């Protein structure tokens, strides 16, 4: 890297990461025309066509253009397997590559956050209005949903006979039907609602960032990798990032420093946020010293408390009903699929990865389970593992994930080099309780599939296989088929200031330092009972309110005139052209 350091100017707010949280923060903070905002993203623009076609997640996950391409350590609970660990590396972050499912979780999730943080503003009753304010629900506003917000929520635009049969079978197994998973109690079986607009993915970049790009006080820099936070004493005053620039050939990089007169907000996600804190001297002091990193603040909770939803994929061969396996196996099927999408934005190309969902208790007879602890994602397709071709016969997949695992993992540096991926150790199925729930989840799936509604299709279990029957055998099967459902959270968790495991307080300020917050899924003290993208969006909405309120409470905070901002090589991400008000300058 070129040793020359270039000033990228001064801003009131510097935001690291243009994923779901970063896009929300940039949009909301720049609504204040007196505040200047810099948003820095390691990936590129979200102009790749497969981002916007819903089925395009197949081409975005595992693609270096849009994915960080992380992998976990070998997992003992998964029989020694290491997993791919997709995370979005593009404007919109993981909302550009995820399953688009709109899911808030359960009332008790947020009431637990309020208890852990001692802050009632994180309770369900307090956050529901925040969810509603963001939302543009297809049915309009009511007690539970909002209308007119930036976050579009729609019904899916297709149905499959085999999914209708599973829907009926689940009811026969005791799971009631529901038409809405987002009223605080998601018990039931029904179709997921999705973040799409007329059959096209609706990511956080479209919803929040693009409408704000015309504001003169917002600057967005892409293809810029933040490698450290800049401190003066115990106050964070900026960030240093690497980026190619004019006159730097052969892939060379220069270092830029952007200063924040107000706050730096780290919104890099559950993997990258703890990595950046540790690179910058915030974390377990002994661990950092072993890596030769000077300690700014000893916070042992950084990188700990990793939680994720492990999905257990069960696949069933069926007869007498068409699934995507055979529909997509022939040229005429592919042509029909393409025509459906081209003319009506419907059909398989408009599919989210999972269409039908269900929330149930893993063991209905266990009185200690007071609310659903299992979520199903059901698909009219099957394959041996993600990234491989679909099977050539008709089949469906029912994946069950444990919503509130007791296993805890970690994410930590393995090198002081910012370009080295961190060590990701989810520690799946590491507790007796999680292993028991996994076995019960497989049993519950078999009970649903054995219901009369599916009998006409003669389902035959092909993954993991009926040879797994005892508790120990089912746990082994769970280790063989289990995989991430892409919901990592908790690695910079909220808590009270004297909680030794907390990284941020209930206002998301990093404990023990000034001028620094973390705002993304990493701050969740416990994982929500469902998909995690929209809860992350809600966290960012709340954080933007907190940040603006703190600014109003301290009118002495410096305001930087937009004309003074200097960001070499910054681009207008909506047009891909140089922004006229930005000029090169060397420190």
| Fraction of residues in helix | 25-40%
Stretches where pLDDT is under 50 for at least 5 consecutive residues are: 246-250, 558-566, 571-587
Largest pleated sheet: 7 strands, mixed
Termini distance? 17 Å
Total E-strand runs: 26
Q: Supply the number of helical segments.
A: 15
Kindly provide the radius of gyration, computed on alpha-carbon positions and rounded to a whole number of angstroms: 24 Å
Strand content: 15-25%
Q: Taking all residues together, what is the mean pLDDT?
A: 91
* Overall form: globular
Category from helices, strands and their pairing: alpha/beta
Give a description of the structure.
The protein is an alpha/beta fold. It is built from 15 helices and 26 strands. Strands 1, 2, 10, 11, 12, 13 and 24 form a seven-stranded mixed sheet that branches. Strands 7, 16, 17, 18, 19, 22 and 23 form a seven-stranded antiparallel sheet that branches. Strands 3-4 form a two-stranded antiparallel ribbon. Helix 1 (20-29) packs parallel to helix 15 and helix 5 (124-134) packs across helix 15 (533-553). The longest helix is centred in the last third of the chain and has 21 residues, at 533-553. It is globular.
Give me a quick take on this structure.
The protein has 587 residues and is of the alpha/beta class. 26% of the residues lie in helices and 20% in strands.
Keywords, separated by commas or semicolons:
587 residues, alpha/beta, disordered C terminus, globular
What's the SSE blueprint?
Elements lengths: L4 E12 L3 H10 L7 E4 L8 H4 L4 H4 L9 E2 L12 E2 L21 H11 L6 H11 E3 L13 E3 L7 H12 L15 E4 L4 E2 L2 E2 L2 H9 L5 E4 L3 E8 L2 E9 L10 E13 L2 H11 L2 E2 L1 H6 L6 E2 L11 E8 L6 H4 L3 H14 L11 E5 L13 E6 L15 E8 L7 E3 L10 E3 L6 H18 L2 H4 L4 E4 L7 H11 E3 L31 E3 L14 H21 L17 E2 L4 E2 L9
Parallel strand pairs: 1-2, 1-13, 2-10, 5-6, 13-24, 14-15
Antiparallel strand pairs: 3-4, 7-17, 8-9, 11-12, 12-13, 16-19, 16-22, 16-23, 17-18, 18-19, 20-21, 25-26
Helix pairs in contact: 1-7, 1-15, 5-15, 12-14
């Amino acid at each position: 890297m070129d040793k020359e350091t270039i000033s990228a100017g001064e801003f009131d707010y510097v935001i690291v990461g243009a994923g779901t949280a970063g896009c929300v923060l940039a949009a909301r903070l720049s609504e204040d025309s007196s505040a200047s905002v810099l948003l820095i993203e390691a990936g590129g623009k979200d102009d790749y066509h497969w981002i916007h076609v819903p089925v395009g997640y197949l081409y975005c996950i595992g693609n270096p253009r849009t994915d960080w391409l992380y992998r976990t350590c070998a997992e003992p609970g998964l029989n020694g397997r290491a997993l791919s660990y997709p995370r979005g590396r593009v404007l919109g972050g993981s909302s550009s590559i995820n399953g688009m499912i709109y899911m808030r979780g359960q009332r008790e999730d947020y009431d637990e956050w309020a208890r852990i943080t001692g802050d009632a503003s994180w309770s369900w009753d307090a956050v529901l209005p925040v969810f509603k304010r963001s939302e543009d629900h297809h049915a309009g506003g009511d007690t539970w949903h909002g209308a007119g917000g930036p976050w579009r929520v729609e019904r899916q635009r297709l149905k499959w006979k085999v999914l209708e049969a599973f829907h009926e079978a689940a009811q026969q197994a005791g799971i009631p039907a529901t038409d809405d998973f987002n009223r605080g109690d998601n018990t039931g079986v029904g179709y997921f609602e999705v973040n799409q607009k007329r059959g096209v993915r609706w990511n956080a970049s479209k919803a929040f960032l693009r409408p704000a790009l015309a504001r003169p006080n917002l600057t967005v820099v892409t293809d810029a990798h933040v490698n450290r936070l800049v401190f003066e004493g115990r106050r964070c005053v900026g960030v240093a990032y690497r980026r190619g620039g004019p006159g730097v050939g052969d892939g060379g990089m220069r270092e830029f420093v952007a200063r924040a007169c107000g706050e730096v907000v780290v919104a890099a996600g559950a993997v990258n946020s703890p990595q950046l804190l540790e690179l910058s001297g915030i974390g377990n002091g002994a661990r950092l010293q072993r890596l030769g990193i000077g300690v700014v603040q000893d916070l042992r909770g950084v990188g700990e408390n990793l939680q994720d939803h492990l999905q257990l994929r069960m696949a069933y061969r069926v007869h007498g009903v068409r699934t995507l396996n055979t529909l997509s196996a022939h040229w005429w099927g592919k042509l029909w699929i393409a025509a459906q999408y081209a003319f009506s934005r419907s059909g398989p190309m408009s599919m989210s990865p999972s269409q039908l969902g269900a929330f149930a208790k893993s063991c209905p007879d266990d009185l200690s389970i007071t609310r659903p602890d299992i979520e199903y994602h059901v698909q009219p397709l099957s394959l041996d593992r993600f990234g491989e071709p679909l099977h050539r016969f008709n089949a469906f997949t029912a994946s069950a994930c444990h919503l509130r695992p007791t296993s805890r993992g970690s994410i930590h540096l393995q090198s002081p080099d910012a370009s080295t991926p961190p060590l990701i150790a989810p520690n799946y199925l590491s507790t007796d309780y999680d292993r028991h729930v996994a076995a019960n989840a497989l049993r519950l799936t078999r009970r649903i599939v054995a219901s009369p509604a599916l009998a006409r299709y003669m389902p035959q279990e092909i993954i993991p296989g009926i040879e797994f029957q005892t508790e120990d055998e089912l746990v082994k099967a769970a280790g063989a088929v289990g995989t991430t459902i892409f919901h990592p959270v908790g690695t910079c968790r909220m808590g009270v200031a004297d909680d030794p495991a907390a990284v941020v307080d209930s206002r998301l300020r990093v404990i023990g330092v000034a001028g620094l917050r973390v705002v993304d899924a990493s701050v969740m003290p416990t994982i929500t009972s469902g998909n995690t993208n929209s809860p992350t969006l809600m966290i960012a909405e709340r954080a933007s309110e907190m940040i603006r309120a703190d600014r109003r409470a301290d009118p002495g905070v410096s305001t930087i005139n937009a004309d003074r901002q200097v960001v070499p090589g910054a681009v207008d991400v909506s047009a891909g052209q140089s922004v006229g008000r930005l000029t090169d300058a060397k420190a």
